[in-house]
Each structure stands twice: as structure tokens, then as C-alpha cells.
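U., I forgot to send this yesterday:
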Amino acid sequence: MMNFLIALALIVCVVALIVTLAVTKTTDTNYGSSKSIKNLSIIYIVLIPLIAIAIVVFWFILS
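Result:
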């Protein structure tokens, strides 16, 4: 059973690598560094409070 799960994980990782490499071959001419910084800022502004809330909720559930 363990060998099956390891093989399955390996297959998923290889497929994910192939798909990632295939997607990165296309270029987006409208995407620049300022847009990248804006998108990352939005992600961090949204994710940091959500992660903090999740930590607090799990802290109360587990204690």
C-alpha cells in the first residue's frame, strides 16, 4: 500500500511539473513588473489575515 502511495505521489509530481513547464512557455505581453507587484500585494493583504484567523481558530479548536 505504501509503495502505491509513493508511486502515485511521484506520478502527480511529474505531471504537475510537465503542466507547469508547458504553461510557462507562453508569454503575456501585457504583464509587467508593476502588475506583478500589485498582484502579489493583493495576495498578501488577503492571505495574511486569513492565515492569522485560521491559526486562531485551530488554536481554540485544539486547546
